[in-house]
Design a protein that fits this description.
With about 450 residues, the protein is mainly α. The chain has a single domain, classed as Amino acid/polyamine transporter I, CATH 1.20.1740. Helices cover about 75% and strands about 0% of the residues. The protein is built from 19 helices and 2 strands. The chain is globular, with a radius of gyration of 21 Å. InterPro entries: Na/ntran_symport, SNS_sf, YocR/YhdH-like.
Length: about 450
Amino acid sequence: MQTKEQWTSKLGFILASAGSAIGLGAIWKFPNTVATSGGGAFFLIFILFTLLIGMPLLLAEFFIGRSTGKEAISAYKDLAPKSKWHYVGYLGMATCFLLLSFYSVVGGWILLYFARSLTGSLLHAGHAYGDLFNQTVADPTFSVLAQFCFMLITILVVGMGVKRGIERSSRILMPGLFILFVILLIRSLTLPGMMEGVRYFLMPNFDNMTGAAVLNALGQSFFCLSVGVSVMVTYSSYLSKKESLTRSAISVVSLNVLTSLMAGLAIFPALFALGMKPTEGPGLLFVTLPAVFEKMMGGGVFIAIFLALFLFATFTSAFSMLEILVAGFSKNDSLKRKRLSWVFGGLIFLVGVPFALSFGVLSDVTIFGKSLFDAADFTVTNILMPLGVFLIAIFVGYRFPRERLQEEMKSEPKLWRKGLAVYIFLLRYIIPVAIIIVFLNVMGLLPV
């Protein structure tokens, strides 16, 4: 049955869009990046780059989707007919497919740890949490089964559609996420000795700031908003023409920065208060934090809350990644949507199985010296996403029909309409150069 998918409200769109972005960057990668890039100085530079680089890119995807009312591939075909620009939509779909195939592995780990926290089997005095994590990810049965359960829930939600599935779940998960954050913040900020962690996170100290850390902040500014994979093109295509895109972009960016702030204030004060130092990679979530909560009064309850928070954020991102694939082929056909949710979800699960096994039975299989999981992560984060961001900036800066862009701007505040020329300048000259610099940095081609 052909029915035009649409958000029931602007709030639903903002919560779903923020949910997509938050799971990808604000909680999972942000604390790790802060811990290795200078603390408060990094956070300040990250906010500046998010406003100057990330938000214009987010708005670019909003313009593409809302102006056409179509999913990514059809949107580019509409705006640039008889050209190859629609391959940007295919690039986004391929990126999301690969990303979700290993992202679901991490989702499975979180789901498994959350189940353990509910049974009370996760925290034990003197527990070797590093060994526990290594045993968990190396166990083929646990890893694959957890990944399967994560993908099953994702498939069921996306199969129900934008209104009944994604928006309804986002309206529950996103407020729940912030409520859990507030609980954790209260606990973390009432620990003796927590001020050292607060100072580390919020007090800029540029003495330790390096060129590499600045470039990390620049890269994080667009990775954390889920831009570059055309997810936001698809999500904005469901938005009413009456809504302001600039205000929606500001809301999504504000929620993302707020989440990053809350994540830092929930994690770093607790770490420093209990005499522990920040670590990078999955160790922060699965090794360091369980050790922190073990030392807290009521730690079992708080670790369950923290893992639930991570799980909520992970699911809202997963929904958006599967949605771009389903929307690209279902063409608003509800029967096709359900079938394609299972088809793409099943394929993503199967492709993800080797990534789940790359920490155990397939640990000896490497690509350019990296495990299968790390190779996929590197390909998406350092190649496909920067390429997608670059192409979207160039498309809106040079190829987007100006009359249609001006039409979209009619519903925006007067200040934003007057700033259109500045916006186009950013997309044409500043942002592409910034993206190229980030790409060269992550590829190790810059002497920083």
